[in-house]
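Researcher: Next sequence.
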Amino acid sequence: MAEVSLRLRRFLESKHVGYEMIPHRADYTAQETAADTHTPGREFAKTVIVRVDRGYAMAVLPAHHKLSLRKLERAIGARDVRMAAEDEIARVCPDSAVGAEPPFGNLYELPVFVSEELTEDERITFNAGTHEDAMRMRYRDYETLVHPRVADISTRS
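Model: Next structure:
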């Protein structure tokens, strides 16, 4: 298990928050991981690291959605939003595999913006720092721990 999985597990346990670890075959897209973990796409939270003006942020959206940079820009009042490059992501989230970042910006001192649709279900599932580990927990617990800003930031693929 990757270091970030252990770090995330320790964080959740220190807060007495329940979760389920779900090992799966190596996947590299959120929709593949959703299928392998038997999770509806609307409940699988994919994390996208973005460059916002002079800093970074996490955008968290359902697996079957695409991030709208324009919508995110408007929602947060930024002048320039772009997808972070792989080398930037590796620097921002050094203990996570690129493309498997958990949606916990507080572990990386990043603001988190969540797509409205993810708030509609009781549970969310997400990558836990590797391409072989996912985690499932109640959305309400996630929201309490992360304090994301909910906004219209995505569109259906």
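Model: The chain has a mean pLDDT of 93. The beta strands are 20-23, 44-52, 55-62, 65-67, 81-83, 112-115, 123-127, 133-138, 149-151, 154-156.
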